[in-house]
Write a structure and sequence with these properties.
By secondary structure, the protein is of the alpha/beta class. It has four domains: 87 residues, no CATH class; 94 residues, OB fold (Dihydrolipoamide Acetyltransferase, E2P); 191 residues, P-loop containing nucleotide triphosphate hydrolases (Rossmann fold), CATH 3.40.50; 158 residues, P-loop containing nucleotide triphosphate hydrolases (Rossmann fold). It is built from 24 helices and 21 strands. Strands 11-12-10-13-14-9-15 form a seven-stranded parallel sheet, with helices on both faces. It has a six-stranded parallel sheet with strand order 16-21-20-17-19-18, sandwiched between helices. A five-stranded mixed barrel has the order 2-3-4-6-5. Helix 6 crosses helix 8, helix 8 packs across helix 24 and helix 11 crosses helix 12. The two termini are 20 Å apart. This is ATP-dependent DNA helicase RecG.
Length: 679
């Protein structure tokens, strides 16, 4: 994208680009963080310690003192008293500015000092006697090193005079929501009147803020709905529901589909039968049965003679899917290829040849599926499990393998439920199916919070459960900074538990193990040959051992809520009562305490996701998707939830009835950054 900073100098232009400011229009919507009141003067004698104030007076002394450290100290006097001003970091030009006899205005916080009231590092300005005061509050903008507030204010003021600020919202929509005009809202935020409510401005509750937030939400909806409509205009392979293989699979299952699964299967089947590419998110809590829904979608492609591929983020999860699908589908005469980075070259080449020839229609794998040598000449359906673990490029790479240049149907799956407000904004370009009930027979999991000081008791609890015929997971702490340290902790824990539990068989699985060793350990645990499995977070998703009824998570305070919920979901998959013990170390940070409280009080993934969104904010919650979604700068998904539905409805209407206005709005806010309309 072209930068609009010709004539500004490269250094200043590069600092503006750091703030994502590329054109004059971007400056107009670069809004203040807070305000300072320079519209009034406070006599020095009545300025109160602990409060910001603006004083005006004459410099009576100014010197560089060397003790207790080098600093510039000036005294300023007015008719009511004298104030000391100190600068620990200063420039020679400041010393000139504070020459004895000069008239100055200082703005800063007053505090009690050794020589009386003082200001440390106040803002200073030379003035002429009788010079007037500003008529509006002074905005303080988000900035970056080397770009001062004065420069930024001048640039923004110039942009406000040169950029057209016409109102692009339909008048009836603006009136219905009681929103001020665009130019009026910007003036109120960049130059608030002295009588404006500073608390409403700083808390972003002022009507002008409401206008800006609504417009930002509207632009996000416009961009995502336009991407959605563009996809629906493309062609895809039509895969009608033939009810041959799919009906055979449902008949042969040892369980009945829940009504939520039946609903999702119906929605996906209808999408696959359409001539445009499906773009659907299947979300459901841990254990809600997404894999069988994916299997039925894959079979719908196969019974039409087309290929389907399922990509998972970890080897353990991909292999688990492969084994489950093979057990369900091979009795129906449907073969599945298994692709992972760890397969032997000869096996891998055989699988690739079977896929390339079209002899095998279904494939399951890790990132290995998107490598160049993998050819899927009849690919019509791509399924991505735990889609938030993949970046935009990886999702695109699988899509690019579509047959005959046609877009494959895409199904994204996630066991991290997405709160409704987030689904309506950041995922508005997807159709969403929700599995909101668990299969019958799943036992509720009890969660216990236990201090690290009681570790011996927890080891005893593991012993008792395993001697009664059950199995247990022991998850090692997450150490973000160092994979090596995390591995060492896992090895130490394995050694300590093996010693403390000599009567039990203990296994170890971690990310550095070779895939066949990992696979063998998991198979031994699944078969009941190992009673305790010490693991890093590689077991976070997809592992299904119904006999495991106890989960211990060490240093639970280090984990995110979604991870804790996923890990806890590895137990409670059979009929025995299951327990998840969260071991935590003192002292707990406020954030750590808040997360543990949420996971202790809630078992519903959607409730946990809502709390997580409040604790972390949408940017972090969305994760890898960030690289392609216009994130919100001003609107708050919780506080401004009431604006999302009207924004969505207006976006649909504008795209239909006023496309030129919709384009102008997107240009104003996104500046042609169409990379935001992504996979």
């Amino acid at each position: 994208m072209q930068s609009g900073w010709a004539g500004l100098g490269e250094q200043l232009a590069s600092r503006l680009r750091k703030l994502d400011l590329h054109r004059q229009e971007d400056l107009v919507v670069h809004l203040p963080l807070r305000y300072e009141d320079e519209t009034r003067l406070t006599p020095i004698g009545v300025a109160r310690a602990g409060f910001p104030a603006q004083i005006e007076g004459e410099v009576t002394s100014c010197e560089v003192v060397l003790r207790p450290r080098r600093q510039l100290v000036a005294r300023v006097r007015d008719d009511s008293g004298t104030l000391v001003a100190r600068w620990i970091n200063f420039y020679p030009s400041q010393q000139k500015q504070l020459a004895v006899g000069r008239r100055v205005r200082l703005f800063g916080e007053v505090r009690g000092g050794f020589f009386g009231d003082e200001m440390v590092h106040p803002r200073v300005r030379n003035i002429d006697p009788g010079e007037g005061l500003p008529e509006a509050l002074t905005p303080v903008y988000p900035t970056t090193a080397g770009l001062g507030q004065t420069t930024l204010r001048k640039l923004i003021d110039r942009a406000l005079k040169t950029v057209p600020l016409q109102d692009l919202l339909p008048e009836d929509a603006r009136r219905a929501l009681d929103l001020p005009g665009f130019a009026e809202a910007l003036t109120a935020l960049h130059h608030p009147a002295p009588d404006a409510d500073p608390i409403a401005l700083e808390n972003r509750e002022h009507p002008a803020w409401r206008r800006i937030k609504f417009e930002e939400l509207l632009v996000q909806q416009l961009s995502l709905r336009r991407a959605y409509n563009a996809r629906r205009a493309r062609e895809a392979v039509v895969l009608p529901a033939r009810q041959q293989l799919t009906a055979g699979l449902v008949r042969g299952l040892p369980f009945a589909l829940t009504s939520a699964q039946q609903r999702a299967v119906g929605e996906i089947a209808a999408d696959l039968g359409a001539a445009h590419p499906m773009q659907r998110l299947l979300q459901g809590d841990v254990g809600s049965g997404k894999t069988i829904v994916a299997a039925l979608a894959m079979l719908q492609a196969a019974e039409n003679g087309w290929q389907a591929a399922l990509m998972a983020p970890t080897e353990i999860l991909a292999e688990q899917h492969y084994k489950k699908l093979a057990a369900w589908l091979e009795p129906l005469g449907v073969g599945i290829a298994w692709l992972s980075g760890s397969r032997r070259k000869r096996e891998r080449e055989a699988e690739l040849a079977r896929l390339q020839s079209g002899e095998v229609l279904l494939a399951v794998g890790t990132h290995a599926l998107i490598e160049d040598e993998v050819a899927l000449p009849r690919l019509a359906l791509a399924i991505i499990d735990e889609q938030h673990r993949f970046g935009v490029r990886q999702r695109l790479a699988l899509r690019e393998k579509g047959a005959h240049g046609l877009r494959p149907h895409m199904l994204m799956m996630s066991a991290t439920p997405i709160p409704r407000t987030l689904a309506m904004t950041h995922y508005a370009d997807l159709d969403v199916s929700v599995l909101d009930e668990l299969p019958p027979g799943r036992t509720p999991i009890r969660t216990k919070l236990v201090s690290d000081a009681r570790r011996e008791e927890v080891v005893g609890r593991v012993r008792d459960a395993c001697l009664q015929g059950r199995q247990a997971y022991w998850v090692c702490p997450l150490i973000e900074e160092s994979e090596a340290l995390q591995l060492q902790t896992a090895l130490d824990t394995y050694a300590a538990l093996s010693e403390a539990l000599p009567e039990l068989r203990v296994g170890l699985v971690h990310g550095r193990l070779k895939a066949d060793e990992k696979s063998a350990t998991m198979a031994a645990f699944s078969a009941g040959e190992l009673q305790v499995l010490v693991a890093t977070t590689v077991i976070e998703v997809g592992v299904d051992v119904p006999n495991a009824s106890l989960m211990v998570i060490e240093h639970a305070e280090r984990f995110g809520l979604a991870q804790l919920h996923q890990l806890r979901g590895r137990v409670g998959r059979g009929t025995a009562e299951s327990v998840c013990i969260l071991l935590f170390a003192q002292p707990l940070s406020e954030n750590g305490r808040a997360r543990l409280k949420v996971i202790y009080e809630h078992t519903d993934g959607f409730a946990i996701a809502r709390e997580d969104l409040q604790l972390r904010g949408p940017g972090e919650f969305v994760g890898a998707r960030q690289s392609g979604v216009p994130l919100l700068r001003y609107a708050d998904l919780e506080l401004d939830a009431g604006l999302i539905e009207p924004a969505r409805a207006l976006a649909e209407r504008m795209l239909r009835d006023a496309p030129a206005q919709a384009d102008a709005l997107m240009q104003r806010w996104l500046g042609g950054r169409e990379s935001l309309l992504r996979a």
